[in-house]
Amino acid sequence: MAVEADLNRPRLARRSYGRPPIWADPWAVSLFLLAAVIDGGLGLALWRHMDSFPELVALRFSVYGDVDIIGPKADIYRLPLIGVVIWGTNGVVAVMLPARDRILARTVLAFAVGVLMLFCLAAWRIVS
Known about the structure:
128 residues; single chain; 4 helices; two-stranded antiparallel ribbon; mainly alpha
């Protein structure tokens, strides 16, 4: 009887029992760790070169390349902190996705890597 009841449920309502969790997927774990390494490397690089930064740095540029916002050099640490928030949020979203949506979970984690790479480029542009 239980088997017949399971077969009569709509396909979307069926659960995928036996699927391993996302942290068992080597691609997802690699993307998650790569994002952590990139963000940690960005924070470490900024910390190591903090003495060479001027007291005021350009924090935002307009479309035309002009400086919009200038702030103290300590504000440059906002990039790795925002990166941690993005990394953690995308990690939670990837874990919360159903087990059958592995490609979507990998895509979410790959976007975190891409955003952190853009943060590295932004930091390089700000300090150079």
